Every structure is written in structure tokens, then in C-alpha cells.
Amino acid sequence: MVSPLPFEYLALLAAACWAFGSLLSAQAATHLGAFAFTRYRMLIAMLLLWALAWVNDGWQSLTLNHIGLLALSGTIGIFIGDTALFAAMNRLGPRRAGVLFATHALFSVLLAYFWLGETLWGLSLVGSSLLVSGVMIAILFGKRQTEQHRWENQQTGFTSGVALALLAAICQAVATLMLKPLMLTNIDAIAASAVRMSTGFILHLAIFLLGFNIARSHLPLTRRIFWLVAINATLSMVLGMTFILEALKHGDAGMVAMLSSVSPVLVLPMLWLVYKRSPAWGAWVGALLTVVGTVLIIRH
Predict the structure, then answer these.
(1) Cα separation, 21 vs 228, whole angstroms
(2) Number of domains composing the chain
(3) Is the pTM for the entire model greater than 0.85?
């Protein structure tokens, strides 16, 4: 599959998919529980990706070596990374965990420098700095005090929560960078996503089958919840991850990670439309810095 879009726009499209998908995840994740929600959406995403890869004839582009590396990337990024992020949110709340997880863009740039020899200079460096700063400000100061989640007042497990959020960020960065050399071999992005998603689902299913209580559904899966999970899976895991892999074919891994990290900012106007309430001052400042940083990166 050859994309007609530059890699910068593919990364931003992925961020938009994740932002819109996150709006649909709250009710379903609360209803099912974080692990059950993740397991169901991985199953739906896996089935869709397998079907698309079969129609697209993408499986022929993969070798056993490709599959092994993709499975390892899925284990690190989807299984370990997502699980660590959910655990961090339980300890820190979504706001503080989100700020720490946003450092995955910085980790990606650093690892890309040492691992792939990628460097940022001039306007790209300035734009990247503004972008990361904007994302963190939007997350940290983007809500009014009355809108804070009840977990924000929870003080137990703070140190372990910080460690888990940073682990999730590092896993995200490592998993993305592992894929850069692989995507240069022109393997099909949809088939590659299918392998990564299958790995994550199998590992999550194993936790459920081993009888861990944390993996059980809080409440039964209803038709409404199913459709929320299905739409989230399609946007976040099918489209979003495929856009990222396609972007890695044509762009630097660090830059792709930077641009795809803007989803917390993109979700702000969506929340405004849904709840009819203007975001807090921090959201405006963060969004402005993010937009300026993104423009500098793209124009450069």
C-alpha cells in the first residue's frame, strides 16, 4: 500500500484517530473494566486487520523474521506498555499519568538518535520542543479544579505509579523504533498491525484464562457497549496504528512519534463540542504551543 500523504500528515491522522477513539472509551472501559475493555477491542481490531490484510494480499509481504520482530514489538508496546499505563492511571489518575506518558515522544527522539542516528536541528528542534511542551501543558493544566478525576486526590502508590507511567512511555518508544527498520522493507502496514494486535490479544487472553480477577468484566457486554468498543477499536487500533506504521515507512521515527503525540490536545475541541464548555486556560496555552510546534515541523 503506497500512501498519497506525507508521513507528517499520517502521524497527525493517527493522533486524531486516537483522540476521537478516546472519547468513546471512557464509558465502555468503566462498564467492562480496563483489562476486559482492552481484550475486547483487541479482538475486534485483530479480526478487522486480519480480514483487511487478506483482502489486500498483505500477508505475502511478511516473512518469519518479520513476524517475530512484530510480535516482540506488540508484546512490548501493546501488552506491557498498555498494561503499565492502565496500572499507572489507577495510582496517579489520568492527568498525571498522561503527562508522564507524553514523555514517550522525548524517549523516541533520544532512542532514535542513539539507535538510528536520527537528529533534530534548527526549526525541527524548536518545533518539537514547543510541541512536547504544549502537549504536557494541555494535559497538566487543561482541566478546571472541579473537573479533576477522583483518582487525582489519591496519594497511595505514587512512586510505583510514576515508575509504571514512565515504563509505559519507554515501551511505547522502544516498540515504535523497533518497527522503523522493518517498515523500510516495504512490508504491508495492515498485515504488520495484524501481527502486533494478535500478539497483544493472545497475551491478554492468557491473563483471562489463567483466572486473574483483574481481567474479568465488571459488567456484561451489552449491545451499546459492544458498538462503543468496536468503533474505538476501528479508530484507535486499526486506523491509528496502521497510519503510524505507514508513516514510519517514509519519515524519521522520532518525528513520527512527536507528531502522533498530539492526541491529548486534539481531544480538547472534541470535548468542547460534546460538553459545550470551553476548556481551561492551560488547554488554550498548550494547544497554541502544540499548533505552532507542529507548523514549524511540517513547514521545515
Answers:
(1) 9
(2) 1
(3) no
